[in-house]
Structure formats: structure tokens, C-alpha cells
Write a structure and sequence with these properties.
mainly beta; Porin; 1 helix; 13 strands; disordered N terminus
């Protein structure tokens, strides 16, 4: 029954996102991206840990910036399979691609966020369900300049709310002499939905589908390389990005209890 429910949830969100991103009247462009990330969970007590994250994202494969950000959180672990998190991130988003808003500098964003993560194991498979709520404080900008068509940043921030759901499955491929996973593969799908005020015609915001191949460097560190397909619907409801990305992730966890 759990497998059927999971399949239905993932299928619904995938079909929901696809229905908004294709169809008549849509102006779709593609970008080739390179996403590079570090993730770390640092245990400070039996029930508490600190999350750290740094991401560098490039467009036109590697030639221009798309986005860079840092993100951190305090996590509470109910057990090894369930945790909640309360965090904050600081983002810089750059103009990129054919549908870029004509802004003469990157747009800063402050992003408080809350998260529930559920994990379960079935045979060799590990499944994760991640629910994340975000309060996006985006710096205000001016109307386009009549001559240059450029916008400029101005004082104040605009609040946008967003809900994210990610399903991830992981499978060991090989094991070492002690029976620990050495090579592994993952697949994931994540849908983003906007709600509340200051939202245009993009209640569906974006969808990410990806696969990775990983290697455990130790019990506390791994590296993953993969492919991600990203669909983004812009606030005017017409412009859509269909992006293809190379992803490279480093995970390094530590235990500070000793």
C-alpha cells in the first residue's frame, strides 16, 4: 500500500507540473546549466544537528552565473528516519538566458525555511519524502527604464511563499569488504508550488527531475555526479525554461558529540 501511495503522489505532481509547462501559448527556451554543491550535516547532540550548504550554479554551461547561495539550519531528529529543520538562506540570482529580466545586477534574496524529512528502507532501497516551506524575501526593483529597458534594485523586499515536495530513491550498487555501500545511484523528483500574495500566473513554479551516480569516500563523505532536467514557469504564465544540467555534489557529515 505504501508503494502505491508513493507512486500516486509522485505521478500526480509530475503530471501536474507538466500540464502547466507545455501547451499552446507557451514560449519555451532551453539553458545548459552546471550546478555544484556542498552539503553537510553536523551532529552536535543526540537529537540536534546543524545543516550547512553552499551552491554555485552556472548557466550557458559554465560561462555565466545563474545563482549562488548559502543555506543553514538547526535540525531536530525524532529518530534516524524523521527530522524537522528550521533554517535560513541567502541567495544571489543573476540575469541569464533568453528570458532574463533586464536587471543590471544580481537580485538578493533572504529565505527563511522549514522542513520535514521522512525516510524509510524497503529491502535494498531507501526512500525519502521531503516537505519544505519557504518564505522568500526578494529585494524590490524599479520599473524598466524607458530608454535602456533595464531595472534597478531599490529599497525594501517582496514576500513570496513557496511549498516544495521532493521524492528521492537511493539504491546501493556495490559494497565493500565490510558490507558497506560503496557505489550507489539515486533518482529524485521535486515540485515547487507558489501560494499567497505577490504571485503572478505561476502557481506552479518549477519541477526538477534528476539522477545521480555516487561513491562513498568514507562513512561520512560521498561525491555524486548526475543529470537534472529543470522546468521553470515564469510569473507571466507564458515563458517557460526547459533546462538541462550537469550536477556535482559533495556531502561531508561530521559528528561533534565526542
Amino acid at each position: 500500500m505504501k508503494k502505491i501511495i508513493t507512486f500516486c503522489i509522485v505521478s500526480f505532481f509530475s503530471l501536474y507540473s507538466t500540464s502547466f509547462s507545455v501547451g499552446p501559448g507557451k514560449n519555451t527556451t532551453q539553458n545548459t546549466l552546471g550546478w555544484f554543491a556542498y552539503f553537510g550535516t553536523h551532529r552536535i547532540a543526540d537529537k540536534y544537528s546543524i545543516w550547512t550548504e553552499l551552491q554555485l550554479r552556472r548557466s550557458d554551461f559554465l560561462n555565466v552565473w545563474q545563482q549562488s547561495f548559502v543555506r543553514t539550519a538547526l535540525m531536530y531528529h525524532f529518530d534516524e528516519n524523521t527530522h524537522v529543520a528550521l533554517g535560513y538562506g541567502y541567495f544571489l540570482t543573476y540575469p541569464y538566458g533568453e528570458q532574463a529580466i533586464a536587471l543590471d545586477e544580481p537580485r538578493p534574496e533572504h529565505r527563511p525555511w522549514q522542513q520535514l524529512n521522512l525516510k524509510n528502507v524497503n529491502g535494498s532501497w531507501e526512500f525519502q519524502h521531503r516537505f519544505r516551506l519557504e518564505q522568500r524575501l526578494l529585494q524590490n526593483w524599479t520599473s524598466p527604464n524607458p530608454d535602456t529597458k533595464l531595472r534597478s534594485l531599490t529599497d525594501g523586499y517582496e514576500l513570496q511563499n513557496r511549498l516544495r515536495y521532493r521524492f528521492l530513491a537511493s539504491l546501493p550498487l556495490t559494497r565493500d569488504s565490510e558490507g558497506n555501500t560503496f557505489l550507489f545511484a539515486t533518482g529524485y523528483n521535486e515540485v515547487f508550488v507558489n501560494f499567497g500574495g505577490n504571485i503572478g500566473y505561476n502557481i506552479f513554479d518549477q519541477n526538477r527531475f534528476g539522477i545521480t551516480a555516487g561513491i562513498n569516500l568514507s562513512k561520512m563523505a560521498n561525491v555524486q555526479i548526475g543529470y537534472m532536467n529543470q522546468t521553470i514557469q515564469k510569473s507571466n504564465g507564458r515563458d517557460v525554461e526547459g533546462n538541462n544540467a550537469l550536477t556535482l555534489f559533495l556531502t561531508w557529515n561530521t559528528d561533534w558529540r565526542n
